Fold each of these.
Amino acid sequence: MVSVRLCASLIALFALAGCAGENYAPKAEPSMYRSMAQPGAQLDEAAAASMISGYRGNNGLPAVTLDPELTRMAQGQAAVMAQRDKLDHAVGKPFNVRLKAAGYDAKAAAENIGAGYHTLAEAFSGWRDSPPHRANMLLKGATRMGIAAVYTPKSKYKVYWAMIIADPDDRRN
């Protein structure tokens, strides 16, 4: 008798749960998992800055904010790597030359590049798991960043990435 009542209660509970599920709409996939390996894909730069800032905060460092000039420079580097299908800091011009040519005054700056990562989460994980790239993300004093991803269908990599992080020299601006 008890087991019959228990079964009936469980059936009723599951039936109610099913009714509530009829109105359930799954949330959109987080932008960090959005594939950049497709035409028209848009990188969520704010999510990237949040991700990098969270990682820096977990390591006792200040957050970074998006800098339009660094984003423009990152876009340029990712685009030239995609155009030439070559992963290289100096594929156009060396990083320090590009920084100086842009007139960006920084006490310190670093650049991470990557290819073949299809999502922001993959790029971040790849950089985090590489000691030199991790050191760049954890650049002491950095408060600004720019990031870009460029899709190129003809490449085996499909997506090229560039991220620049800097400690701007505000006294000189």
Amino acid sequence: MHGPCLVTDDTAPMRAALSLARRGLGNTWPNPAVGCVIMRDGLVVGRGWTQPGGRPHAETEALRRAGEAARGATVYVTLEPCSHWGRTPPCSQALIQAGVARVVIATRDPDPRVDGRGIAQLRAAGIEVVEGMLEAEAREQIAGFASRNERGRPLTLLKLATSLDGRIATGTGESQWITGPEARRRGHELRGQYDAVMVGAGTALADDPDLTCRLPGYAPVPTVRVVADSRLRLPLTARMLGNAAEAPVWVLTRPGHPAEKLEALRAAGAEVVELPASEEGQGLDPGAMLRALAERGITRLMIEGGASLAASLLRADLVDRLAWFHAPVAIGAEGRAGLDEMGITRLASAPRFTLLSEEALGPDRLLMLQRA
């Protein structure tokens, strides 16, 4: 029987911290998902990750588990410890008070309230600080948090489930199911890793989706369901309003609707957010929608349709990533396209994406792409 394996380099503990951080994706907004591992004499004495709702922070959880063993230890944390007072004291001070000797950080905090201040406080207290360990992986994990801080909008993922020829339904509107059960399960996994999922009013009317993540072990913080509904067409009988008390429903619309319609939606459990119309006068301004979601704390947004909403966000260059599920079936020109008109006359102006990964899901495939 083998005893504990002694660890002598920084890479493996940081990979463990990154693995812990992944547990928080979709559950920690408005805070980032962070992981922390504490080691002393080559052995793990504490570990933690950001808890649902964003508190407690990863360092607080790891220090609680380590107890007195944290004194003189090395701390591996995927994001710079916070240095500002919020609902709880800053993590930089907690680490100092615990008497840790060394802190290895994957990436700095993009929050302007921190951004180097936590590191400065640790060094001022005589703690050795190492920066940049597996930084690219850590930046990927906090991409939504960084986007909200640096661009004022969430990281956006557009999900498309289409036939080989880019159709999301037949000409009669039949769409269930173009992709198989493995692909649909993967779609739910993605949903559980995002703070909010958004659809257009047309999709809400045609499909009456629930939009919750229905997989065991996912989304202890319910995914926010967002409907872009400029004409306020969402019926009070919509499935998502039936469980609005368990998972929030936000309706984005234009000003000027009758007060009784607004009050009826609010009484049904929806939060109604009034926003400017787009420059074309049709629908909502896509940038205003994303800014409004960021202001409410959303860091990671998944767009699930429909064709009009997807096209408007692509035209505005607001889609960061694309999850393209495609099935080995051809529907033809009479089918419904996954995107509305984009107004593109030259290929040079078409949005382009680069491949990140590809996976087989039964008979279907998922291509993950990012904006070029």
Amino acid sequence: MSTEFFKNIGKIKYEGRESDNPLAFKWYDEDRVVAGKPLKEHMRFAVAYWHTLVNKGGDPFGAPTETLPWDKSEDAITRAKDKMDAAFEFITKLGVPYYCFHDIDIVDEAPTLSEFEKRMHTMTDYAKQKQQETGVKLLWGTSNLFSNPRYMNGASTNPNFDVVAYASAQAKIALDATMTLDGENYVFWGGREGYMSLLNTDMKREQDHLAQFLTMCKDYARKNGFKGNFFIEPKPMEPTKHQYDYDAATSIGFINKYGLQDDFKLNIEVNHATLAGHTFQHELQVAANEGLLGSIDANRGDYQNGWDTDQFPIDIYEITESMLVLLETGGLQGGGINFDAKVRRNSTDLDDKFIAHIAGMDAFARGLICADHVLKNTNYKKLRTERYASFDNGDGAKFEKGDLSLEDLSKIANSKGEPQQISGKQELYEQIIANAY
């Protein structure tokens, strides 16, 4: 029998808004039906292996602050199995249906690729057993092609072909693991797929190489029976100065340019959206408009810091606005809500990990409930429809259909004269959202 790592913590239960128990849900009642589906089907929550089981609280300015009880063995496989025991204990006690991983989160890299692949096979078999025992599923897998020094100049965009080949081999191992574990999706985050200086960069050639790499990975997985989605996760910078998957619009342009639109969608992260100068809801809407909103990495940044702080999401107003996008555009396509978030460096108790996830899950549940209320019980939709009423008939409708020329518009403008100003009523919309809580 495996060791119990999170002692004195049982299965997290829903206790409702009146509860003051920090280890209980106040809003996330997984079976509560909202907008025609239970919350658990809307959310499809996932635990991020890397932040929850691997992160030890270190940052660029200080050493790790956590001592993880599953990270003690000197043997790589024993340590990896202890970590996986802790992972599935945490996930099942929290009551989350999914998890996500990078390959090197599962087990440490090895001196050679072949040895690393053997380690991954061992741990994939162990994870398969854990999934069967618990019913927990893999939302998506991915490969860490950015941490090792070999990737300092990128992975698939590296100017050295040998590095590109190595990255491709490592991606194959992660794809094999994902398929073996019946992963529902696979993510590509180009952590160093970009440039620090154009002076030494052939941008077009690098982007062509990135597209070739993605195409080969897609073809390999499809050939071997993978039916899920491939996700690109946009981020503007950090660690590189400018990454090729800068934001949702840039990534969509890339997907369309290289003919990847039938297989690839986007995994939108909150903190990446704000680093790109956008809001989370903006990035969701851009992806949804193109039918490419696949999944979400849930977190938030500190708006006084200019880097990716990966804090747990608790901004109810922001989340409610974001859930409006999801409800109005049909929800996520294949993915879920993965907590790509970590406890703060000075939060060092094991129960802090539970409290953080509970708060995030409650925030998303509450935001969805509030968004559903706004759509069903306020005049929010009516106000927005009326704002565009001039395009619903007459010349406005002809314009939308493409039935008017520039000369036609010129005649209409001259005949009508100065247009009437119509208020945007922004404060009214904000009031409606604020009053939903």
